[in-house]
């Protein structure tokens, strides 16, 4: 392979990796937003029920 061809191949691979990295960042950002929304919902539900009450699975009979 000629040196210029090798350089072009490496540049192409780097561009592909950068695109993939950007996609992964976007996916992780969406996941983080979703997790925060779920955490807020859980906190709101717990506040409605009384935050001192243990989860039903830990209530002794």
The 3D shape can be described as: rod-shaped
Number of strands: 0
Q: Which class do the helix and strand fractions yield?
A: mainly alpha
Supply Rg.
24 Å
Provide the residue-averaged pLDDT: 85
Strand content: under 5%
Q: What is the helical fraction, as a range of percent?
A: over 70%
Distance between the terminal alpha carbons, to the nearest Å?
76 Å
Stretches where pLDDT is under 50 for at least 5 consecutive residues are none
What is the N-to-C order of secondary-structure elements (H for helix, E for strand)?
Answer: H
Query: Could you give a short account of the major beta sheet?
Result: none
Structural features, described:
0% of the residues are buried. The mean pLDDT is 85. With 61 residues, the protein is an all-alpha fold. Helix content is 77%, strand content 0%. The longest helix has 47 residues, at 3-49. The protein has one helix and no strands. It starts with a helix and ends in a 12-residue tail after the last helix. Residues 7-41 form a coiled coil. Keywords: Coiled coil.
């Amino acid at each position: 392979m000629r040196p210029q061809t090798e350089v072009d191949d490496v540049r192409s691979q780097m561009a592909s990796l950068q695109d993939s990295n950007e996609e992964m960042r976007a996916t992780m950002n969406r996941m983080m937003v979703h997790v925060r929304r779920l955490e807020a919902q859980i906190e709101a539900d717990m506040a409605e029920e009384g935050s001192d009450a243990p989860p039903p699975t830990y209530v002794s009979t």
